[in-house]
Amino acid sequence: MKIVELGLELRVAAAKVGKYASRESGDTLEMIERPRGGVSFVLVDGQTSGRGAKTISNVVARKVVSLLGEGVRDGAAARAAHDYLFTHYQGKVRADLTILSLDMTTQTIVLSRNTHCPTIVFQEGEWSLIQDMAEPVGLTTFTKPTIVEFPFQAGTYVVISTDGLWSAGARKQEWDVLGFIREAVERDAEPESVAQSLLCKATELDAGRPADDVSILVLGVLSRADGRGVRRLVVHVPI
Amino acid sequence: MKIVELGLELRVAAAKVGKYASRESGDTLEMIERPRGGVSFVLVDGQTSGRGAKTISNVVARKVVSLLGEGVRDGAAARAAHDYLFTHYQGKVRADLTILSLDMTTQTIVLSRNTHCPTIVFQEGEWSLIQDMAEPVGLTTFTKPTIVEFPFQAGTYVVISTDGLWSAGARKQEWDVLGFIREAVERDAEPESVAQSLLCKATELDAGRPADDVSILVLGVLSRADGRGVRRLVVHVPI
Questions:
Q1: What is the pLDDT, as a whole number, of residue A3?
Q2: pLDDT of residue B207
Q3: How many Å lie between the alpha carbon of B73 and the closest alpha carbon of chain A?
Q4: Which of B82, B150, B155, B227 has the fewest Cβ atoms within 10 angstroms?
């Protein structure tokens, strides 16, 4: 089966906000082209928040991005980032790492998790949570990611995030992230709207003052909007 | 002057399409967070088109991205990418390289050009072309970029592109890129619309079959759309 003929496209939307009163988010999100085709998204939540967390998440993201850019496979890049952080900080510093890739060689979406933060997936009409044990990088020897692959299939959604999304409003009570996403997708299937409503909701739960850095990435495999092979990128950066 | 209080944001939109009948674009566009604050966009047009060009543009972009990610300044990263390509291919291969950065430490937009392709700028109510001599990387010893800096100022636009934009429809006649962009911004100031109309126009000039890879990036410094410090990213990748 030639996937190219299906006229699909990957539409990804991410939104990121820093903890209230922090000058910057401690999360890092990077995107890199895979040299053998496709793209990868690397999301890292550094320990604590603010400047210190940012340095850590930057170091981890940079290591992963630079390896993926050289064609290294996702699992090996995650292991290397762990080894690097573990060596550099003698196991005293942790980071949550998630890699989400569109791999054109295997024609799959590859999810590599080193985080306790669940991933939400919609596939073949079913919503599910991927939350099997996945140690963060940096703490113990021989940490490795848990990896899941999905075929390119129209209507597939994958939502990754840092734990700020899950813990939003937690001072009061836990909230139903999966239920909210399901409703958001039913209302408007565009990843951009889903990411936006998720971030609004999380901020609202914290009464407009996020208690932690929140980063969200929503990936959808959808029919091409314009029917042609145009790659697009839109970025908003507050200054 | 504290720029942060101005409530500005950088809105960047890029669009990229491959030469007609080529399986992939030979251009590479990458984005990377600057470790001391801000983001950089790296646009590379590899010699020829298709797979060979892609390999070259990938190598150059990767080198630049990895150096910028480590905090290396833009001019040094461009020089390093040149030296690397020059050494690796003994001066036989060229690439056009443009780096456009939002540098939070100097509070400027930094444009580094190693290309004959002009950059279009709108600043303080004036449109202009930046087209001073700037050798591509890879060919001769000691190549260096030409660098221009702009302060963060609401209403500033910078448009960078690969030469496919300028040569669109060239079999018939040259077209007025600057005039078109000026009108596009007057019609709709959103960088996303400007990038979209530019790509449409370029494709139309080639009767829907681009004669070369075309990549366009439109950067605008504008008032924040939502008033809060949310960073956003939207990506569409045809598969």
A1: 42
A2: 87
A3: 16
A4: B227
Residue burial B117-156, b: 16+ Cβ < 10 Å; e: rest: bbbbbbbeeeeeeeeeebbbbbbeeebebbebebebeeeb
Q: What CA–CA distance (Å, rounded) separates A164 from A180?
A: 15
- Inter-chain residue contact A16 with B231, CB threshold 8 Å: yes
Q: Is A142 left (phi over 0), alpha (psi -120 to 50) or beta?
A: left
Helix, strand, or coil here: A191?
helix
**Six-digit token string for B62:** 């990767």
Of A43, A27, A47, A31, the C-alpha closest to A138 is A47
Chain B residue nearest residue A239, CA to CA: B9
Task: Measure the CA–CA gap between A14 and A237, rounded to whole angstroms.
Answer: 12
Q: Report which residue type is found at A205.
A: L
Q: What are A110's strand-pairing partners?
A: A101, A149
pLDDT: is B3 or A135 the higher one?
Answer: A135
B219-235 residues labelled b (16+ CB within 10 A) or e (exposed): bbbbebeeeebbbbbbb
Q: How far is CA B51 from the centre of its chain?
A: 21
B237 and A10 within 8 Å at the Cβ level: the answer is yes
- CB-nearest to A13 from B8, B70, B233 is B233
Do the Cβ atoms of B15 and A230 come within 8 Å? yes
Closest CA to A11 of B223, B234, B200: B234
Find the helix packing angle between B50-69 and A50-69, rounded to 10°. Answer: 150
Instruction: List pLDDT tens digits, range A148-199.
Output: 999 989 999 999 999 999 999 877 778 999 999 999 999 999 999 999 999 9
Q: pLDDT by residue (tens digit) across A74-106?
A: 999 999 999 999 999 999 999 999 999 999 999
Distance CA B160, CA B129 (A): 11
Residue A1 has what pLDDT? Answer: 39
Q: Which pLDDT does position A227 carry in this prediction?
A: 59
Q: Answer yes or no: do B233 and A29 touch at CB < 8 A.
A: yes
CB contact under 8 A, A237 and B30: no
Q: Which residues contact A90 (CB under 8 A, 6 or more apart)?
A: none
This complex has an ipTM of 0.91
Q: How far is CA B38 from CA A162, A172, B109, in A?
A: 21, 35, 10
Name every chain A residue with its beta carbon within 8 A of the beta carbon of B199.
Answer: 230
Tell me which residue in B18, B66, B232 faces A235 most closely, judged by beta carbons.
Answer: B232
Instruction: List Cα–Cα distances, A101 to A54, A70, B90, B111, B116, in angstroms.
Output: 23, 14, 34, 30, 34
pTM of the model: 0.93
Query: Which residue of chain B has the CA closest to A103?
Result: B239
Contact A239 B8 (CB under 8 A): yes
